Amino acid sequence: MTEISIVWGALLVATLAFFSLQCLLSLKMKVDAAYLFAFCIYFDLFAYFYKLAVPGESLILLIGAPLLPVGVALLLKPSIVLETLRDQGIWLWGIFLAYVLISLTWAPAESNGIMKEVVLLAHGVVPALYVYLVYRKYGRFSWTIVAWAGMAYAVLHLLLGEYNEEYPGRLTLPGGNPIFNARTSLITATVCLWASRIPLPVRLLSLGAALASALSTQSRGPLAAFLLANAVYFGVWFIRKFRERKLGKLSRLAMPLLFLLIIAGGTASAYAEQLAVWVESSRFMVLFDRNQLQGDDNYIGRVDLQTRALEKLEASPFLGAGLGSVTPPLARDFPHNLVLEIAAEGGFAGLTLWTFAVLFSLWAAIQRAPVLAILLVQSVGYALASGDFGYNYEYVVMAITALALYPVKQREGVGVKREALVFDHRF
């Protein structure tokens, strides 16, 4: 029965691939790069169902599934390869990744650093390049697609999530980690808050589901990064509107906002006691109580790990100790801070290369798609509180997507205005 199932599965995949190829080549259908972006960011949604049917590593799906539209894009427009090679931002990321790979030559022999880079490439860099190439061919990116995918992810997390002994009181997808569940849902929340041309019902439903999903994980670092990134952008946005004297045009939003505040206030008053009990018993209290923070075992453990990473940096400040030198199996655990990890393993040389790549991508995002700038800051904030070099992939996806959306002629210094490339398109 197993062999028959494999044969039927292979035939089904081949049929779907042939049909898709016909649509792309004969019917000249255009692919929206947001599908690939959502597939990467919400990959846990697809991996969950994939693992139910196919045993083994699910990252092969992330790498293999988009190959057909990417291959067609390259076939129909080979020049996008040259565009990619001329992109200064891509070069900056390539130099940084090459440097950390070279650092393996002076890392301890038992270092497992190569696996960290492979995970980052498979989970972040390669899928982001898929988005880059497809967008360069078709010029389509719809945030509505991202919002729909984010809603599906949040609903799946809320319906199928579980409370297990490893993460007591924290809703987690089976086999997952509540921190990464929260990080993913809060990306959806930011998209719904700031991205343009998302239908209001989709925006509100996705925002509500994403916030419920994120809060149910009781993950503090992702929430703090989300609040900080959005607060900074809101301040910048408010100042810009004030200078442009456009705040008067926003007055039409006063009544809807007042109505929502009244409803929220009434709801909070009705459930005040339950909310107070929930807040006081939740893990979020450490964000408001310094004494609780300093007594938190998780916080104390991470401070110790980060202190050890700083000691590695002091021992080899310029080149670092080599990729993988501050993470298992050489260390008990990783420092849960990407900047410290890169500095300890790549030295100030590696940290400088990383900083240039991030800042260049942030500049491109600010120029073309501010929501990506918020997401980049937010995902870097995630990386400062959890995860390691390999599994902190979201910021790389945001960075390379920002490079894709930045027009080639503007990147080359030619002041030519182009049609709006980021819009709402649905098949």
Description:
It is a single chain. The protein has 427 residues and is mainly alpha-helical. It contains 20 helices and no strands. The protein has helices at residues 2-25, 33-41, 43-53, 59-64, 67-76, 79-86, 88-102, 113-138, 143-160, 178-194, 200-216, 220-243, 254-270, 272-281, 290-295, 297-315, 338-368, 370-383, 394-405, 408-411. Helix 6 (79-86) crosses helix 8. It is found in: Membrane. This is O-antigen ligase family protein. It is a multi-pass membrane protein. Its main location: membrane. Keywords: Ligase, Membrane, Transmembrane, Transmembrane helix.
Order of helices and strands: HHHHHHHHHHHHHHHHHHHH
Major sheet attributes: none
* Integer average pLDDT: 83
| Gyration radius from CA atoms, angstroms | 23 Å
Distance from first to last alpha carbon: 37 Å
Keywords: Ligase, Membrane, Transmembrane, Transmembrane helix
Pfam families: Wzy_C
Protein name: O-antigen ligase family protein
Domain O-antigen ligase-related: 208-354
